[in-house]
Amino acid sequence: MLEASNNNELPVIPGKRYFTIGEVSELCGVKPHVLRYWEQEFTQLKPVKRRGNRRYYQRHDVVLIREIRGLLYEQGFTIGGARQRLETESTTGTTDTNKKKMIQEMLTELEDIRALLA
Asked: What is the value of pTM for the model shown?
């Protein structure tokens, strides 16, 4: 998932429990109306609603929004493609740790192949 450390253009997520839609908009570089639209398109995104239907996002929501933003804006996925990608990641259990492990294994294999070719 996209953390602030992996994405230099986005600010660090503060250690708060809840964030307003305006705060999330600034943290993720996405306008509030886009966030409301994504709630309809991505079932995983469910902010807590209180007092007059005001949305309050938690840290995991902010991380998910950054991941959605990365898929749509940086990797060029369509809404449907991003939705499918997120669903397959949740069903297969692909986490950052698993991804890092897979990348490390691939690097090791590539180094072995390079050694064979040299």
From this structure: 0.70
